[in-house]
């Protein structure tokens, strides 16, 4: 299989095999050019601010297109952890109320809930069974006192994809809100913000952009009146109003979650990268990722590895995780051979995106064979 995109447009890919997109992606030259445009605009004073506003709106439009929403329902913050913490801190709850998370979540989705636990919110943790968590598993912990379910669309740990649409279908007629973390899916597979109440995503992974932005999508169908407990000058409709020392009014749309200026270099980069993803088409990108990932899984299993990620295409995305006690050691070995994967948490993770091809997979298995021959633990065919 060939890559969907010219590898030469990425900085550094000529020197390595990048199977690391679940952590971060290689920089695209178009992002570098976009950031340069930001600095050129910055040099134009007020005219540059006009250009910033244009690019920000264009970026929100692209993100809304990826999420099947509208730009007014998109907010741009500093990072996903900030977004999750803001929403968790803004929950209204009474003694005896609870939230539901699971044990395949990244710490950014766990820690803010643990903090709320310290002030009286019950945190219920759904435990996986053989690396799987189902909608039924989650719903078994939901009752009339559940204020929110927070879950990833695709697990950072296992690479498993959750049917969040089915979950939302069961939650949307209850008081329980669904907070979906799409950091490991948006840009790789379709995500629909209309099937969750909040969606969060980082900018520097599958969206092909740089660090510096957390995307928040707010579905107004159930949370139009949800107010954050943080506020800044960008959150309000009239920051210079005559009563600004006594009161303020939040914006009615997703801007109410924005405290100040976003990272405009990141916004410029993300405007380019999201446009690039839309140009190639998420359905086409998903097809490429699933087919190439399927080949990775087949070869891993043939070599005797225990793959945590489901084999079924509709139950995974771009991350493929392998049980391995010292994941860091094998990741470090592969890095020595210029093959980048992520290792830790008792596994190593191979991530495939639109710029990967079968040659990358061959290089991965060549480096794995060297590792095993060196350690004389198994023989890789």
Write the layout of secondary structure elements.
Layout: E1 17-18, H1 29-42, H2 46-67, E2 74-77, H3 80-89, E3 98-102, H4 107-117, E4 122-126, H5 135-139, E5 146-152, H6 164-171, E6 177-181, E7 198-202, E8 214-218, H7 220-223, H8 264-280, H9 282-302, E9 319-323, H10 327-336, E10 339-340, E11 342-344, E12 347-351, H11 358-375
Parallel strand pairs: 1-10, 3-4, 3-5, 5-6, 6-7
Antiparallel strand pairs: 2-8, 7-8, 9-12, 11-12
Helix pairs in contact: 1-2, 1-8, 2-8, 3-4
GO molecular function, one term: transaminase activity
Protein name: Aminotransferase class V-fold PLP-dependent enzyme
InterPro entries: Aminotrans_V_dom (IPR000192), PyrdxlP-dep_Trfase (IPR015424), PyrdxlP-dep_Trfase_major (IPR015421), PyrdxlP-dep_Trfase_small (IPR015422)
Short description:
Keywords: Aminotransferase, Transferase. With 381 residues, the protein is of the alpha/beta class.
Question: Overview of this structure, please?
Answer:
With 381 residues, the chain is α/β, with parallel strands linked by helices. The chain has two domains: 7-19 and 282-375, Aspartate Aminotransferase, domain 1; 30-278, Aspartate Aminotransferase, domain 2. It contains eleven helices and twelve strands. The strands form three sheets. A seven-stranded mixed β-sheet has the order 2-8-7-6-5-3-4, sandwiched between helices. It has a three-stranded antiparallel β-sheet with strand order 9-12-11. Strands 1-10 form a two-stranded parallel sheet. Helix 4 links the parallel strand 3 (98-102) and strand 4. Helix 2 (46-67) packs parallel to helix 8 (264-280) and helix 3 (80-89) runs parallel beside helix 4 (107-117). The chain is globular and about 75 Å long. The model has no long low-confidence stretch (mean pLDDT 96).
